[in-house]
Amino acid sequence: MNFTLFDLKIVEYSFFITAILVIMIGLYGALVKKSLIKVVIGLSIFDSGINLLLISIGYITSGTAPIFSPALVKDMPLTLENIKKLSEGMVDPVPQALVLTAIVIGFGVTAVALSLVIRLYRHHQTLNIDEIKNLKW
Amino acid sequence: MVGSPVLFIAVPLLAAFLIPLLGMVWKESIRILPGLVLLYMLVLAITLLEQVMHTGTIVEILAGWKPPWGINLVFSPFTGILATLMILMGFIIWIYSYRFKNVDFEEAKKYFILFMMLVTGSVGIVLTGDIFNQFVFIEITSISAYALTAFYKHRDSAEASFKYLMVGSLSSMFLLLAIILIYSQLGTLNMADIASKAHLMKPEFKILAVIFFIVGLGIEAEIFPLNGWVPDAYAQAPGPVGAAFAGIVVKAGVYALIRIIFTLFDVSGTHQFLIVIGLTTMIISEMAAIRQDRLKRMLAYSSLGQMGLVLVAFGIGTEEGIFAAMFLLINHAIGKSLLFLSGSYLVYNSADKYISETNGMGKFLPVTSFLFALGALAVVGMPPFSGFWGKFFMMSAAAHANMLLIIALILSVSLIELVYYFRVINRIYFYKKESHITPKKPTVNAVIAMATLGVIILIIGFYPDLISGYLHQASQALLDKGKYIQDVLSTGQLLTH
Amino acid sequence: MKEILYYTWGAIVSFVVAFSVGITYMGLNRKITARVQNRYGPPWYQNFIDVIKLYSKKTSIHHGVMHHMGPAFIMVTAVVSLLVIPILNGNKFFPNLNFQGDLIFLLYIMVFGPLGMALGAGQTGNPNSAIGVTRGLSQMAGFEIPWVMALVALMIQYKTTSIVDLMNVQVESGRWLMFSSPFAFLAAVMAMLGMFRYAPFDIVGAPQELASGPMSENGGKYLFVMMSAGSVFTFAKLTLYVDIFMGGADNLIILVVKTFTLYLIPMLYGITSPRYRTEQSVRWFWGWPSFFGLLAILQAALF
Amino acid sequence: MNMIYILFTLMFGGAILTFLAHKVSGLLRDTLFVLTVLASTVLFYTKIHTGDTVDFSISGLSLQWGINAYGRIFSMIVLGLGVMASFYSVSYMKGKERLGYFYFNFLISLMSMMGILMSHDLVSFFIFWEMMTWSSYFIVIYNGKNVQRSGINYIIFSALGAYAMLMAIVMVYAHTQSLMIPDMMQAFPFFPAAYKIWLPILFLTAFTVKAAMMPLHVWAPDAYADSPMAYTSVFSGALSKMGIYGMIMVFVTMVNYLPDDTWFRETIAWLGAITAIMATLWAIAQDDARKLLAWSSVAQLGYIITGVAVGTPLAMLSALFLSVMHALFKATLFMAVGAIEKQTGTTKFTEVTGLIRKMPWTFISSLLAIIGLAGIPPLGGFVGKWMLYESLINSNHYILVIAIFFASTSAFLYCYKFLFGFFLGQEEKEWEHVKEAPALMVLPMIIMATLLLVFGVFPGIVLKPIDLGMQTLGYSTTAGTFWSMSGLFNEWGNQIMMRPLAYAIGGTFLFFLIILTVKGFKETRYVTTKDISSSGEVPLEHENLTFSEGFYQPFLRAVCPVMKRRMMTYYQGFGQGMEAFFDYLRRVYSGNGQTYAIYVIVFVVILLLFKNSLFG
Fold first, then answer.
1. What pTM value is reported for the model?
2. Fewer CB near the last or first residue (10 Å), C or N of chain C?
C-alpha cells in the first residue's frame, strides 16, 4: 500500500490520467458554462472524477476481492504472517467504502442543486448564471 | 457517567428523523422535541465537560473497532467546549425560533428537521476523530445549510443557496482529494494515527494535503477568497438560521481547519499562513461591511471579519493565542447570534432589510433595540462587555509573540467596525422612524432567547473567570499533540488487551 | 494702620499729579493738532474746563447697572496701573505696589478696565458703542503682540519681570534700554501708537461714523469719570515707557519732559496720518512692529 | 468589604437603579440620581484616604485600585463638578424624554472617571477609559442632533486614541509581565529604544484625543456643542481633564527618561499653543454660544497642554491649577448657556439679546466666569496664566509665550461676545417674558463662580493639594521655592502683594462707584435701551438695532488666511477617499456564483504555485 505515483504500473497510470481528465472536464463545465444545468452537470462530473481517483488508489491490477473466503484460506492456519501474505493480492476495501459514501453525498448535493435550479428558473425566468446577480457586494 | 459523547450525534439525528413521525401524531411535538433533545444534550455536555476538566479526555469507540481502524469520538477539553457552545447556541436559537412558522405546519417541520441536522453535523465535525467521518459530517452540515438558506421562497434565497452550493461542493471535492492523498500515503484515516505517522509522509504530499484541506475546510471557516457566499447566505436565510451559521457552523469549520493545522501535520508556515489569511479576510470583509446598506449583509461581513480575527489569534500559535482565540470564538458566537436574532426583528417587516429601515426602532422595540446595542458593543469589544476580554487577550498574546504590526493593523480595522456598528445604533435610537415600516413586536420566546444571550454577555464581561479556566485547559489540550495521540491510540490498546 | 494711611495718601497724590499732567497733555494735543492743521484751536487748558463742566452737570441718564459701573471699571485700571508703575526712581514720594512679576500683572490689569467699560458700553444698547468695542478689541489683539514681544525681550534679557529691576539696570549701567535694546523700543513704541488710539488707529471712537463709539451714550458724571481715567491712564502708560526704556526719572520735571517727548510720537504721527480700517491696523501691527519684536527677542536670546 | 468596592458598587448600582426608577416615577429617579452622586462624594472624602488600595485578579491578571494624592487633585474636579452638575441637571432636564438613559450614562461616566483616577493598573484604566468613552458618547448623541456627524466623529477619534492606548498597554504587558502602572514607571528606563519612543507616542495619542489637541481635536467642538448643557459642563470640565491626567503621567514617567526629550516636549508644547490660537480664532467666529464655548474649551486645554509639555515644576503647577480653574469657569459658562437655552429656547447670539435685567444671577455668574476665563485679576484664571507665563519665560520658551499670549488676548474678543451677545445690547420685545432660571440651576453657577473668586484671591487652597499630588509624581515640594521668586503669592498664597493689590482694586472701584452713584443721585434716571442717541433720532420700540451679525468681521478678515484651512476637511477627504476605496474593493464579491467558484480554483492554484514559499 505504500506506493508513490511513480511506482505504479501503466494500467494504474491510465486510471489516474482518466480520473484527472474527468475532473478537468467537470471543472470546465462548472466554471465556464453559463447555463445552470450545465454547471450542475459539470459539478457532477467533477464529483465522478474524484470518485474514480479514489477508487484507483485502492486498485491493484489483477487483484482479488478483499474477502477471506474458505476457498482462499483453504487450510492455512490463521497466523499473522499468513494473513499478510494473503492480503497482498487483495484490492484495498477502504477506498471503495469511502467512494460509496461519497457517491451518496454527491447524489444528495446534485439533487439539492437541481431543485435550486428549478426555483431559480421560476424566480428569474432564465438559466443564465450571469443574469442571476441580485445579491452582490 | 450520565452518557457518552456518541449521544451528541445519535440523539439529534434520531430526533431529526422522529420529528415527521411524531408530527403525524401531535403537531406541537415537532416544536417541542428539538428543544427537549437540545436541552438534554446541553445538560449532558455540561456534565461531561465538568468531568473532562477533572479526569481528562474521553475517547469513545464506535462499533468496537479500535482507533486506528474504527471511528472514534474525542471529547477533550477543547472539543468539549466547542460542542457545548454549539449545543448552547442551538438551544437558544431553538427557543428563539419556537414560534417560527407558527401557522404553517409543513414549513415548521422542515425547518426543525434541517435545524437538527445542522446541529448534528456541526457537533459531529467537532467530536469525531476520523477525517472521513468529518467529511461526512461536513457534508451533512452543508446540505442542511443549503436547504436552510433556501428556506424562504419569496426572497432571493435560492440564488444565495446556489452560490453556497457551488462553492461548497467544489471545495468538498478538494477535501476528498486531501483525504485520498493521506490515505494513499499513510493508509489510515484516524486523526491521531495520521498525526503520529505524519513524519512518514513525503513532504511534498504533506504540503499538497494541507493545501487541499485548507481549501476544503476554508469554505466553512469562511476564509477570504472562498467566502463570497457568506453575505448572501446569511442575509437570505431566516434570522435564526443566520444566527446558527454565525454561532454554530462557522465554529465547526474553524475547528476542522485548526485541527488539521495544529494536530495533523506539522508543516512549517501554516501558522503564518493562518495569520495572513485571517488578516486578509478581516480587512477585506470589514471594508465591505462599512459600505453595506442592508443590515444582515453588514452583519454577515462583520461576522467574516470576526472569524478572520479568530484565525489570526489561532495563528499566533502560543497557548495564550489559542486561549484568546477561544475567547473570541465564544464572544463571536454569542454576540453575533444576538445581533442576528435581534436584528431580524428590527427589520422584520421591511422587504429589503435596509439599515435605514431600523430608524427610530428604539422607541417601538425598546428591548430588542437595547439587546442589539448590547450585542454591538460586545462585538466591537467595548469594555466591560465580553468582547473586550477576547480582544485584550488576543492583543497581549500577539504582543508576547512580538507581532506589533499585526496588532496595529487589527486595531485600525477595528475602527471601521466600530463606525458601522455605532452608525446603526445611532439610527435605531436617534432617527425618525420611516413611515412605511410597521415594527413587529418580538414574541416572548424570542425575547427570552435574546435576553439570555445578553445576560451571558454581561456575565462574561464582568466575570471572565467564569470561562477562562476552561479555556486555558482547552488551549493546552489543543497544543498538546502527544497527549491527544496517546489518549486516542491508548484507548484502542486498552480495548484489544 | 499708619501704613495704610500713608499708602492712601500716596495714592491720592499720585492720582492728582497724574490727572493734572494727563489732562494737560490732552489739552496740548488738541492745541498742537490745531496748529499743525493751521487752525487756532482751543486753549491748552480746555480739557480742564471740559472736565469741570461735565462734573457740574446735574442730570444724567444710564441704561442699567453695567453701564453705571463701567466708568468705575476703567478707573480701576487707570489707578491700579498708576499704583503699580513706579513714578520716580527710588520711590521717594510715591509709594507704590510694584513687585516681582508686575509686568505680567500690568498686561492683564490694563485690559481689565477697557473690558469693564466695554460691558457698560454694551448695555447702552447703542449699536455704535458695540461696534466701537469690537473694533477696539480687535485692534487690541493687534497691538498687544508687538507690545508683549518687546516686554518679553526685556524680561529675558534682564531675567526679571519687575519694572523696578529694569529701572535699576538702567541706573546702574547708565544706559537707557532704548539704546541697549533698540528693537524692543521700536516695537513698543509702535504698539504705543495703537494703545493711544490716535490716528491712524482711531477707528474705535471714530466720531464721524460711530459718534465716539464706546463713549457715545455717556454724559455728565459718567463721561467725567471716563475722561479723568483716560488722562490718568495716559500718564501711567507714558510713565511706564519712560521707566522701562528711558531710564526713569529722578524728579517730576524730568519725568514730565521725558513723558511729553514720548507723547509727541503718537501725537505727531497721528496728526499726519489718515485712518486705517480695523483689519488694516490689525495687520499693520502684525507686520513691521511684530518683526521688530521678533528681532528684539532674538537679540535678547542670542546676545 | 473595602470602601473602594463600596464606592464603585454604589455608583454603578445607583446608575442602574436610576435607570429603572425612570419607569416608576420622575421624582424617585431624580432623588436617586442626586443621592448617588452626593453619597459617593461623601463616601469618597470621608472614608477613602490617600494610599488606600485593594488588590484582586481577573482571569489571571492581577489588578489594583487605589487613590493617591495626584488622583485626588482630579477627583476634586470630577466629584465637585459632578455634584454641581447633578443638581443642575435635575432642573435642566425636567420635561425631557429618555431621562433614565441620560442619568444612567451620566452616572456611568462619573463612575468611570473616578475609576480612571483610582486604577493602579493598566487594564482597569483602559476599561474605565472605554466606559467613559461610550457613556459620554451616548450623551453626546442624546439630543439627536447631528448624531451621525458629531457622534461618529467623537467615537472614531476616541476609539483611535483608545486603541493606541490598548496597543501601548499590551506592549508594556508583554515586556514587563505586569500591568501595574508603578511597575511600568520603574521599568520604563530599561525598555528597548524603540519602545521608549513609541510608548509615549501611543499613550499621548489616547490622552490628547480626550484633551482635544490640535490634529485630533476635530470631534471636540461638535461633541461639546451637541450634548445637553447639563452634561457638557462635566464633559468639558472634567472628562477632558482625564486626558490631562494621563498626559501628565506620561510626561513625568516616560518623557523624562527619553534620551533626547527636548524635541518631544517642544512639539507637544507647540501643538498645544497652536491649538490654543486656532481654537480661539474659531471661537471668535462662532455665532452660537455652545459652539463658542466648545471652541474656547479646546483653546483653554491648549494652554494646559503647553504647560504640561514644558514640564518644569512651575509649568506643571500652572497646568494643574488651570485645570481646576478651567473646570470651574467652563462648567459655569456651559451651565449659563443651558439656563439661557432653557429660558429662551435658543443659544444663538443673533437671536437673544439684552437678558441682563431678566436673568441677573446668570449674568453675574457668567461675568465672573468670563473674567476668570480671560485671566483677568483677581480671579483664578489669572493666577494660572501668570504661572504659565513665568514658567515659559524661565524655561526659555520665548516664542511660545508670545503665542500663548496672543491666544489669551484674542480670547477677550469672544469673552466679550459671549457677554454682549446674551446679556447686553438692546432689550427686544421678543424676550420680555423671559424669567430667571430656576434656583436649582442658578445656585450651582453662583457657587462655582464664587469659588473661582475665592481661589483667585486665596490660590493656596488649591495649590496645597496640587503640591501634594506633584510630590507623588516625584517633584520636590514647590512650597516656598516658586513663591518667593514671584513675590505674588509668598508662602502658599498668603498674598503678601496680592492683598494690597486686592485692596487697591476694591477700594478704587468702590470709591468711584460711590461717586458715580451718590453724585446727583436724584437727577440720575434710568432710560430703556431703546432711548438712545442715534444720530439725533430715537429708535422706535419695534426697531431692532441689535448688533450681532458679523460681530468680529473686521478681525476675522484680518486673520482669514490662517482660517482657510480646516483640519476637518482633510479628515473628510481622507474618509471619502477610504470609502471610495472600500467601494472599489468590495467588488471582489461580484455576486456571480461562478466567479466565486473560480476564486476557489484560483486560490488552489495560487497556493500550489507558492507552496514552497508558503509552507517551505
1. 0.91
2. N
